[in-house]
Amino acid sequence: MQLYLPIAEVSINAFLLLGIGGLVGVLSGMFGVGGGFLITPLLFFVGIPPAVAVATSTNQIVASSFSALLAHLRRRTVDIPMGSVLLAGGLVGSALGVVLFNWLRARGQVDLLVQLSYVFFLGGVGMLMLVESLNALFRAHRKGGKRGRRKRHNWVHALPLRMRFRVSGLYISVIPPLAIGMMVGVLSAVMGVGGGFIMVPAMIYLLGMPTKVVIGTSLFQIIFVTAFTTMLHATTNYTVDMILALLLIVGGVIGAQLGTRIGAKLKAEQLRILLALLVLGVCLQLALGLVLRPSELYNVEVVETAREVAE
Amino acid sequence: MSPLALLLAVLLLVPLSAAAQDEAAGPRIPRGAPESAQRPPEQIVLGLSQDEVAITATFDGSDLLIFGAIRRVAEMDLDDLGVIVTVAGPSVPATVFRKERRLGIWINSNAVNVSQAPSFYAVAGTAPLDDILSATENLRQSVTIPRAIRAIGNSVENSGDYIAALIRLRQDDDLYQLLDEGVDLAEGTLFSTRIALPANIVEGNYTVRILLTRSGTVVDTYSTTIGVQKVGLERWLFNFAHEQAFFYGLTSLILAIAAGWAASALFGRLRR
């Protein structure tokens, strides 16, 4: 069934969009990731204009993260003060990101920025995850191997403006969480992602937060930052497509339930290796697009003028 | 009694239904007075399958049927006759980028700004355009696709390549169409053509032009507009998003949160 999307202004098969939402939902249920980093490139691929894809997927992330956050709040695994500090940074980053996005869009470089960000971050995070989980698998085979100390004292603990975070059991400077939050905010605006795949490792390895509060706290930050980003895109670019978002959300929630069931049958290490390979696959695909000579060297960008609204 | 009544009814009904049909499907009388006070020897009378194109939620392109007739004062030779139909969407500025390899990756480097390019342009003729339209008339009337695009004041070298690329890309998307022999001409009087509007057309007023040529010279033109517009839900959402962007964004968020919450509540209950 072809459906005409009012903001994207393209006609696309509704079941294809439900399918994309469902596929990403399965993966997010399996791996516990938001899936924004997969939705945005998939939307580019089916012909949604990049600006609409980025803005709409932030709206979709709000929906998919909300139910997960409710579960974490019930289990009290959310460090709200820490989340608020991350959020403060995130809001600033998101605003900067939208400004950067619009500036590059006017210069025809927004696709490049989005692709480069994806290659850089997915490549980095994918490699880290692969090495980590292969190590963990190796350790599991060689019984009795020493586990490395997770909490280390590094430069992060020498910074001023310290604050106590009771739930995480930390007494650290607010500068690193602010900086992490800000970076994630920029990524959210530019890449249309929640940024969990950056924030979670940063919270564990840089801030030394306990693993059980990391997911809930990052979800807390992600919901507010993506909601803010959605509002910024909706009011400055008019690029949030409500119909597109609803199709992705409906597909996503059904897929997520399926994914959770598949995920429960696999071992944690296996899951992480699979996720790392998936992330690296997406990264490689995008990298090839940048490096190989494109079959079409030219592209057309329509100059957006303030279009008159009829009636 | 009854045969008489039947006859009366038929006499009354025939002119009525004929008039009704005329109104429904009959060709329209050209609007506007001809340019010269003297009536030209040949004139175009036009009909359209529809006055407007409505973009609904299930819009997947639309076929536009353009038909008409040529009215003549006297019998004329038909050998050098040509009919050209053009359909042009609203013109908007566009930028054409060319990718170049910099530091190992392909990025947009040089760009040409096209001041006006129709978002949709189809041109159909009774024969290949070169045969029925002279170069001078093409310049004057801007009929062929390259002539419909205006690019002025470009300093980039070989900007012609960029324009050619613009045309090629839009032709691939069926946004620009060149239909040689796309117009059927019957008995030298009745012409008709079918233009397929793709699903990715933009809103606005589309200009339909008919040119009547004799030995490559335009002897009569006729133009009318067709409105292409989103209707219903599509219209409402588009206006909402542009006129009340803040509330639109807020509504999107509320819908998203409600959907996420409802789904988890529903599946939570199913699992129990």
TrEMBL record, chain A:
InterPro entries: TM_pro_TauE-like, TSUP/Inactive_protease-like. The keyword Cell membrane applies. It is a multi-pass membrane protein. Keywords: Cell membrane, Membrane, Transmembrane, Transmembrane helix. GO terms for cellular component: plasma membrane. The chain crosses the membrane at residues 12-39, 51-73, 85-104, 116-138, 213-232, 238-259, 271-292. It is found in: Cell membrane; Membrane. PANTHER family: MEMBRANE TRANSPORTER PROTEIN MJ0441-RELATED, MEMBRANE TRANSPORTER PROTEIN YTNM-RELATED. Belongs to the 4-toluene sulfonate uptake permease (TSUP) (TC 2.A.102) family. This is Probable membrane transporter protein. It comes from Pseudoroseicyclus aestuarii. The lineage of its organism: Bacteria, Pseudomonadati, Pseudomonadota, Alphaproteobacteria, Rhodobacterales.
Automatic annotation (TrEMBL), chain B:
Keywords: Membrane, Signal, Transmembrane, Transmembrane helix. The chain crosses the membrane at residues 245-267. It comes from the Bacteria. The keyword Transmembrane applies. Residues 1-20 form the signal peptide. Pfam families: Alph_Pro_TM. InterPro entries: CHP02186-rel_TM. This is Uncharacterized protein (TIGR02186 family). It comes from Pseudoroseicyclus aestuarii.
